[in-house]
C-alpha cells in the first residue's frame, strides 16, 4: 500500500531523509521509529505531499505521493495537531466532513459513529479550549477516520497522553485492525508499538537501520527498547 523508493529529502545541506526504501503491505500495522530529528515526520510530510522528495519517490496504492488521488482513502493525524479552540469537537468533525464533500446526513451519521468510537459521547458539544490533551488527540484521530479511510497515517498519535489515554488509543487502533485498516505510525512509545504493530522500521539521521517483522526483531528475547538503543547508539 505504501512504497518508498530511495526517498531522499534535503533541507539545504541537511539530509533529513537519506535514500530510504521500504514498503508497507495492505492490512499491516507499521511503525516508523527513530530518535528526535531522525526524519520520521519528514517521511510523513512527503507521503502527504506537504514536502516533495529531493530525489527518489514515494507512492500510496501504486500512485505517486505527488498525486492527490493517491490519498482518496487516507486519513491522517499530523504531529502536534491543533483544533481551533473556538469550535466544539462536534463542529470540528463536521467541518472536516464538509471538506470531504459528503452529504449532510452522511456527515452527521459518520460523526456520531466516530464520537462513539473515540468515547467522547456527552463531551462533543463543549468547546475545544475546555478539552484535555487526550480529548484533543481523540478528536484528531476521529477526524482522521471520517470518510472511512483504508489507510491511517498517524504522527505520534499518543503524544502528550496519560497512560489511560495511551491505552484507549491503542484499543481504538486495535479495534480498527479487525476492519482491515492499514496503519503507518510514527511513535516514541516503544512498548505500545510492540503491542499493536506487525512491522517496524528504525531510522537514524535519515538512514534506515532496520525494517522487519516485530516477531523477527524480538526473537532473541530483547525488548524493542533494547533493539532500538543498540542500533541507534551503534
Ligand atoms: N522545514 C525544515 N527546514 C529545515 N530543516 C528541517 C525542516 N523540517 C525538518 N527539518 C530537519 O530535518 C530533520 C528531521 O526532522 P523530522 O521532523 O523529520 O524528525 P522526526 O524524526 O520527526 O523527529 P521528532 O521525533 O522530534 O518528531 C531534523 O534535523 C530537522 O531539524
Ligand atoms: Mg516528528
What would you say this structure looks like, in words?
- With 234 residues, the chain is α/β, with parallel strands linked by helices.
- It is built from eight helices and ten strands.
- α2 packs across α3 (104-117) and α2 (89-99) runs parallel beside α4.
- The radius of gyration is 18 Å and the shape is globular.
- Bound molecules: adenosine-5'-triphosphate and magnesium ion.
Helix content range:
25-40%
Which spans have pLDDT < 50 for at least 5 consecutive residues? none
Topology pattern, helix = H, strand = E: EEEHEEEHHHEHEHEEHH
Ligand types = adenosine-5'-triphosphate, magnesium ion
* Cα shape: globular
CATH T-level fold name of the largest domain: Rossmann fold
Roughly how many Å is the radius of gyration? 18 Å
Biggest β-sheet, characterized? Answer: 6 strands, mixed
Q: Output mean pLDDT.
A: 94
CATH architecture label of the largest domain:
3-Layer(aba) Sandwich
What is the count of helical runs? 8
Instruction: Indicate the CATH class of the largest domain.
Output: Alpha Beta
Strand order of the largest sheet: 6-7-8-3-9-10
What structural category do the secondary elements indicate? alpha/beta
CATH superfamily of the largest domain: P-loop containing nucleotide triphosphate hydrolases
Amino acid at each position: 500500500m505504501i512504497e518508498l523508493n530511495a526517498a531522499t529529502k534535503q533541507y539545504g545541506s541537511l539530509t533529513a531523509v537519506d535514500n530510504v526504501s521500504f514498503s508497507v503491505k495492505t492490512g499491516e500495522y507499521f511503525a516508523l521509529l527513530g530518535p528526535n530529528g531522525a526524519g520520521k515526520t519528514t517521511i510523513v510530510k512527503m507521503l502527504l505531499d506537504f514536502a516533495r522528495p529531493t530525489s527518489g519517490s514515494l507512492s500510496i496504492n501504486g500512485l505517486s505521493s505527488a498525486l492527490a488521488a493517491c490519498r482518496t482513502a487516507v486519513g491522517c493525524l499530523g504531529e502536534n495537531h491543533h483544533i481551533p479552540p473556538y469550535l466544539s469537537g462536534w463542529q470540528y468533525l463536521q467541518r472536516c466532513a464538509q471538506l470531504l464533500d459528503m452529504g449532510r446526513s452522511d456527515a452527521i451519521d459518520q460523526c456520531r459513529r466516530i464520537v462513539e468510537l473515540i468515547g467522547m459521547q456527552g463531551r462533543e458539544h463543549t468547546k475545544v479550549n475546555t478539552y484535555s490533551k487526550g480529548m484533543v488527540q481523540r478528536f484528531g484521530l476521529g477526524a482522521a477516520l471520517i470518510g472511512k479511510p483504508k489507510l491511517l497515517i498517524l504522527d505520534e498519535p499518543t503524544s502528550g497522553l496519560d497512560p489511560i489515554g495511551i491505552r484507549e488509543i491503542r484499543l481504538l487502533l486495535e479495534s480498527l485492525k479487525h476492519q482491515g485498516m492499514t496503519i503507518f505510525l510514527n511513535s516514541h512509545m516503544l512498548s505500545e508499538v510492540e503491542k499493536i504493530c506487525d512491522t517496524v522500521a528504525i531510522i537514524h539521521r535519515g538512514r534506515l537501520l532496520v525494517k522487519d517483522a516485530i516477531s523477527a526483531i524480538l526473537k532473541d528475547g530483547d525488548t524493542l527498547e533494547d533493539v532500538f538503543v543498540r542500533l541507534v547508539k551503534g
